[in-house]
Batch of 4 targets.
Target 1
Amino acid sequence: MITPDSSAELVHQLTRIADAAAAYRGSAWADWVKTISSFALGLFASYLTGQLSNRSSDQNEQNKMRRIVYQELAQWFFELHSLVCEETKLRRVRYSIIQNFGTFAGEEYMKQNPAVYYGLDEGPVLSSLYSCFHRVEGGGIGTPRVYGLVEVKHPLRYFSDSYRQSRIVRKNFKRVLSAQAFASLDSLVNLSDYKRAATIEEMVDSGILEIVDKPRETADEAPTAKD
């Protein structure tokens, strides 16, 4: 792999050889060395310029993809967080909001530009975040469990875990978002609510658990004192 340090050293060595050959006027061999060294130096300089240009272009494309993806993921998080802060018995309202919620434009952009996507070190993490958000995009009113608190909070908890565990993800959210938006995101992902498992209330809201009142004893079933 060509690095700035190795490139500078190679250019220095080729230049030194060419200068030495130019200073020595004693034979045709010196002229030959001078010619070859100058040619090699020019060839490498041309190659290095091309590599740096390609690298700059790749970096620009990666930055563009990150802006699209990170802004959309942050918006998903903010919207879902606002949604679960409402009262728990709002599954039909959740549906009416979620059905027009996100476009997944960032995910589609990653699929359309695989070469750029595979250049992102955190690419698999971003894909897994989108996959998790997909869990709350469909189902319809006929299956309201999809919009229960367990289902809606799961992407938020997964997002929070990924954010806390990945330094590069945190760094890029900070780079892409405004200072105010990043401060808000950084505060919300560290809420204790997103660091624990689902509560009984949330599981009841999702239909995973059902609380049944204990039947009252009738007069005939009530124990009587023995004489």
Target 2
Amino acid sequence: EQGRGAAATGGTAALLGAATRGVTGFNYLLNASDFNVVLNALEGVTRVNVISSPNITVLDNRTAKLQVGDQVPIVKQSGQSALSTNAPILNEIEMKDTGVILSVTPRVNKNGRVVLDINQEVSDVVPTTTSSINSPTIRQRKVATSVAVNDGHSLAIGGLVQEKAQITNESVPVLGDMPLFGPAFRNRVDTRVRTELIVFIRPKVIRGTVEADRIAQDFRDQFRAMMPVRPVPAPPPMAITPNGSQGVLRRMLD
């Protein structure tokens, strides 16, 4: 499903409807003004958490990769020597990237539009229940798409919905452990947590060194604005004794 937010807010309304209904695999194009409208509207209907807000510079037709997560050790294969029955079992470990992994390959066409080849993956670690291998299972959700975006416009990619069941046992201390009346003081809460990842991509074509210097200066200004302002300590007061007050005043005038 694909829509475009032009002068009106039709694309914005469609994006909000798809996000709240949990439509899988959607992408929408947004104007610069629609981007803030979407974020404010989503905060009004659900809880929004910004995972990361990076800025990446990449050459034309080259791939930029972003990962927000951890590397998890996975058992690739196991082996034991056949020469001895007491030989230890050797495991070959492979490090697997998990979390939010985004790969983007931009190409600028002759019309000035940016063609984006996007591969998005969201993975997390869950316990292995289908085998006896002492290694976690990587649960993955992937989206691959190719879209054309105007310079400076935003692209919204979503539909990666995940639901987790959580069981919480609550009890009153001491009373909840009683053999007969304990269940009356215990409570079991079953909740389902539904999360959806929406990625916003805003390509900006850098033409020449002048524009590159201007963008770099904008980033420096943003960093300075985020840095806390440290108050300058006042100098200690100058002690003037009655006997030496005239000498101090004379030195200050000199």
Target 3
Amino acid sequence: MIKNFQKSYLAKLAVYLSCCLLGFGLTILSNPLFFPDGFAQALMPKQTNNNQVLIAQNQLPSPAKISNSTRLECNKTIKGRLSTSDFRFQGRRFQKYLLNGQKDQLIRVSLVGGSATQGRADTLQANPLLINPVLVLYTPNGQIVEQQPKQANVIDAVIRTKLPTNGTYSVLVTSATPGTVGRFSLTYQQLKSDGTNASVCPAS
């Protein structure tokens, strides 16, 4: 009977000590006196926001302010280069492209540049890739439809959306990193309404 009592007592003691250690550990992690600011938060899983953007709206120019533009043709790829002579706003360079759209038309605009990892070696070239490329689509009256990508350090940005109205849309090309210039590829496609990626460009 004494042995059974000892086993029961030891089991309860072990549970009690485990709870105490767990509580003490959580207290340490959440107490700024034990660790520098932000250390505990760094250990916690980070939440992602599907609505986040790389460039805030107040850091983007109105398309109307950019006088130079190039018209996009369906299923055609433009080999471009963002340079120091392009329109400058809030430390970033911008190029403007135009496309004609109709309400409920499904389109895809793809921008391909390079990542920061590629860029470290690529900057040795005379004509490096555009690092952290960003694509912004505007309605005919200058309202933002979509900005892509949602995360930094990716080589491409793709906007795939249904147009809200008829008219001429503006597409801005820039970089999430202020002051960055470089070459890129830009492709515009009209897609089938069933959501497939098959292009349905009108006959020229």
Target 4
Amino acid sequence: MKKIITAVIAAVTLLSCTGCSLKKDSSDTDNKQKTSALKVGNPVVPEIEKEVIWETDRIRVSTEFFKRAETGLKIKIENKSNTDLELSLSDPYVHVNGFTMTDFLSANVPAGETLFETISFNNQCIRDADIDEIHCAEFVLEAEYDGNFKDKEKSDTIIVGDKSDEWRKNDDAPDGQLLWDSDGIKIISLGFSGEIIPVLSVYIENNTGKEIDAHLTWADVNGLDVNLLSKSLHGYIQNGKKRICQYDMDEIMEESGEDSLRVFGLNFDIDIGEDDPLRTRYLNIKDISGYTYKPSETTTEKEED
């Protein structure tokens, strides 16, 4: 069941959704490599030393290197126990440069054996967050032994890459329309994008001191209230982290029954820890020129019926 849930979460991420400097002979070489990386859409990655990042009596996990193409972190898993184990992320999140990226890891390691695996960083999430250089990755690992969900070990938060706060000094929020800046939460509309699946990208930053769930519950389409509760458009963000959430515009328009978009707004119900939800009311998107609704043939047929 755990693997099925993990796979579903990973599939949903496709739509949703580390910092040591590279050692080079000259700044020119470094600049050329960075420019080249940006052209192909892959971020510059730091060079790291191989080190043990988690070890118990039964398991040892160490770093190998950051991968640039198919971005991620290569790790080495040594099963020191006499039973099989499954190594996974404790929750389906990896934080890259502070951005929450829903992802997954599922590595089955037989008793006494060693396996190399990659903690992947969703490339679409990397692009959405406009990350051109990885400074650090943060995550929590969990090992389950012999398929027994009661026999687990969990690591502390692991940080690989730049553990200092130097890179954060220039880590400003992206440009866009500020929709909300209150109660430790900042929400910014980054506009519309995507040709095959048009989406609205929204930046959400959490400094409440608690984990939040920024749940998109309603949309205002041309003055009509559109109920999105059944869509489960959740955005879980840990304290001090941020996330790019993407919302399928065609799906919202189909739900509204409207044939064009003239006015658009978003309503979030935000759970802050165990506190009562914070409701933003409608946050109006001022510039909707970047999106044109093109009803699908299925939608048109339903309207004719």
